[in-house]
Amino acid sequence: MGEEVKVYGHWRSPFSRGVDIALKLKGVEYKYYEEDLSNKSASLLKYNPIHKKVPTFVHNEKPLAESLVILEYIDDTWKSHPILPQDPYQRACVRFWARFIDDKVIPTLWKAIWVKEEQERTLEEVIGYLEFLEKELKDKYFGGESIGLLDIVAIFIAHWVPVFQQLVGIEILTETKFPKLCKWSHDFVTHDVVIKILPLKEDIIAFFIPRLDTMKKTGGLSTTIYQSV
Asked: What's the whole-model pTM score?
């Protein structure tokens, strides 16, 4: 029986793009469905009735939600280009740092960029978080010499943060403060698989420019990052 893999995603969602990257690294054939998050498809609501978010992943009609769950399932199912280490302790450490990025780093970065009244506090907080990641980065990638799960989870830091820095005129991820993270960011986004999947910076900027005032008023809650996990 043939494999049927479907991904319901959105081009601006770093979580959605991460699933695409994992599948492409492993050479998995799949059908991609671009979602309009203001008018979600019946298929998305059918396969992900609880969260109703992207990415939603379907393998032989078995659906999964939440990007970290999906990434681990992909690694367990397709063995080429492993994105998690085999050693149980190392796997546990990767999971810890992945949760740290999803639960601590990304929400705090988002507030530092968009919530002006909290900016001083959140900037200080996120700098501390990034210092932890700077120390944790010991090779070309978090996954060693090849891209691993933690690199994929950190996609928002690598690609979206530099775009938003340019857009709103804020300095967070700089070579002076974070030389290793900045080099990693460049190596990751220019990887021959990743570069074909990431949205162009110009397209992200073009989308957000007419929405800047609304973003600042709502603290960024009007955008798609909070409709994806």
From this structure: 0.93
